[in-house]
Design brief:
This protein has about 375 residues and is α/β, with parallel strands linked by helices. The protein folds into 2 domains: about 25-45 and about 295-385, Aspartate Aminotransferase, domain 1, CATH 3.90.1150; about 55-295, 3-Layer(aba) Sandwich (Aspartate Aminotransferase, domain 2). Helix content is about 35%, strand content about 20%. The strands form 4 sheets. Strands 4-12-11-10-7-5-6 form a 7-stranded mixed beta sheet, sandwiched between helices. Helix 2 (about 80-90) runs parallel beside helix 9. It starts with about 20 loop residues before the first strand and ends with a helix.
Length: about 375
C-alpha cells in the first residue's frame, strides 16, 4: 500500500484563482514583496491593520512583554491585563464594564451567544441576512451566506435571519423565545451596508420589550474604523453585548466580549479561553488603544472616508451601482464581478479586497498617508474607468 498523500500545508482551504502574492515585510500602510516592490494596503490586512503594519509602539510593547512574561493562565492576575481592561472599559459607556477576553472575532461572537443563552434561558438568536460573524459553529450559524455554511450542516439550531434594515421583519422575529439579536452596525463582509437608525432603534426597543439581549458585532467596525471609536456611538444606541477583535491589539490576535454586570449576574454557567487575555496580547492592546485615542484616528477616518466617498461617487454609473460606507470602510458595488478589478489594482501596486462577488471593499489602515490614499483612489478611477 502506498503512503497516503500528505495533508496540504496551507493556512487556508480556499483555492486561489491565481498564485497568491507573497509579502515579506511592511511598515505603516506599505507592504513589500521579496523583490522589493512596494504595495499600498487598501484592505490586505482585512481590518486588522487600523494602525498599519508593525506599528513601532505596538512592537516595543510586545518586545518588552515577551521578555518579561509571555504567558500566564487566567487564574492569576497580571498588571498588564488589568491595565488593558481598565483602558478598554474607560472608552465605553459605563454599563459596559464586564469583559471576557479570547483570541479572535469568531470566539468573541461565540462567547456572546453563550452568554445570552445562559443569561436568558432561551434558545433563539436573530441575525441579519448578508451578515458575517465568523466561522466556528455558533458564529457560522449566525452568518448568512450559503457558501460559508455549505458542507458543515447541520449547524447550531435556533438561529433565524431577517433582511437587513427591514424593521417589520425584525419586529416579528423577536419574541419571548429570543435570547439574542446579533447585528453589525455596518455589514463589512456582506457588502458594506450601513444600518438604518430605525432598524437599530427597533432592535433596542423590541429586545427590551421581550426580555432579549442586543449584541453589536464590531469586530470590523470598532476602534475608529467608521469615524467613531465604536460605530454604535453614531446612533447613540447602547447594546447589552459588544464584540471586538481585529485591530484591538494592533495586529496581535485578541478578541473581547464586553457586557453588563446584569448579564454577568444572570450567567449561571462557565466559559473559558486558555490563551484569552494573555499578557502579550494585553500589552499590545494597551499600546494600540493609546495610539488610537491619542492620534484621534476615528476623526481621521471620518475626514478621509468622507473625502474618499465623495470622490468615488463620481465613478461612471454604467460601471458602478453604488458607493457606500462609513469612515474608512467603503464598498464600491460594481455592475460586474470585482475580481478582475482587484487584480488590476494589484498590478498597479494597490491591495484591496472584495465584499461579495461584485463589491470592491476599501479598508485601509487609519494611519495611511493621504498621498497614498489619493493615489489608490486614482488607480481605482483608472481601472474602473477603462473596465
Amino acid at each position: 500500500m502506498s503512503d497516503p498523500a500528505p495533508f496540504p500545508a496551507s493556512h487556508s482551504f480556499v483555492q486561489p484563482a491565481r498564485p497568491p502574492l507573497t509579502l515579506v515585510r511592511g511598515e505603516g500602510a506599505s507592504l513589500w514583496d521579496a523583490g522589493g516592490r512596494r504595495f499600498v494596503d487598501l484592505g490586505a490586512s482585512h481590518g486588522v491593520g487600523n494602525l498599519g503594519v508593525s506599528h513601532p509602539e505596538v512592537v516595543r510593547a510586545v518586545q518588552r512583554q515577551a521578555a518579561e512574561l509571555l504567558f500566564l493562565g487566567s487564574g492569576y492576575d497580571v498588571p498588564v491585563r488589568t491595565e488593558f481592561l481598565a483602558r478598554l472599559t474607560a472608552l465605553l459607556p459605563s454599563g459596559l464594564d464586564r469583559v471576557f477576553l479570547s483570541n479572535s472575532g469568531t470566539e468573541a461572537v461565540e462567547a456572546a451567544i453563550k452568554f445570552a443563552r445562559a443569561a436568558t434561558g432561551r434558545p433563539k438568536v436573530v441575525a441579519a441576512m448578508r451578515g458575517f460573524h465568523g466561522r466556528t459553529y455558533g458564529a457560522l450559524s449566525a452568518t448568512w451566506r450559503k457558501e460559508f455554511r455549505e458542507g458543515f450542516e447541520p449547524l447550531v439550531p435556533g438561529f433565524v435571519h431577517v433582511p437587513f434594515n427591514d424593521v417589520a421583519a425584525l419586529r416579528e422575529a423577536i419574541d419571548e423565545t429570543t435570547a439574542l439579536v446579533l447585528l453589525e452596525p455596518v455589514q463589512g463582509e456582506g457588502g458594506v451596508h450601513v444600518a438604518d437608525r430605525e432598524f437599530l432603534e427597533e432592535a433596542r426597543r423590541r429586545t427590551q420589550a421581550k426580555g432579549a439581549l442586543l449584541a453589536f458585532d464590531e469586530v470590523q467596525t470598532g476602534l475608529g474604523r467608521t469615524g467613531r471609536l465604536f460605530a454604535f456611538e453614531r446612533w447613540g444606541i447602547e447594546p447589552d453585548l459588544l464584540t471586538l477583535a481585529k485591530s484591538l491589539a494592533g495586529g496581535v490576535p485578541i478578541g473581547a466580549t464586553v457586557t453588563t454586570a446584569d448579564v454577568q449576574r444572570r450567567f449561571h454557567s462557565t466559559h473559558h479561553s486558555t490563551f484569552g487575555g494573555s499578557p502579550l496580547a494585553c500589552a499590545a492592546g494597551v499600546a494600540a488603544l493609546e495610539v488610537t485615542v491619542r492620534d484621534r484616528l476615528a476623526d481621521r477616518a471620518e475626514r478621509l472616508g468622507t473625502q474618499a466617498r465623495d470622490r468615488l461617487a463620481r465613478l461612471p454609473p454604467e460601471k458602478v451601482r453604488e458607493v457606500r460606507g462609513l469612515g474608512l470602510l467603503i464598498g464600491i458595488e460594481l455592475r460586474e464581478r470585482a475580481a478582475p478589478y482587484l487584480a488590476r489594482l494589484e498590478e498597479k501596486g494597490f491591495l484591496a479586497i472584495s465584499a461579495g462577488p461584485t463589491v470592491l471593499r476599501l479598508i485601509p489602515p487609519l494611519v495611511i498617508p493621504e498621498e497614498d490614499l489619493s493615489a489608490g483612489l486614482a488607480a481605482i478611477e483608472e481601472v474602473i474607468g477603462r473596465g
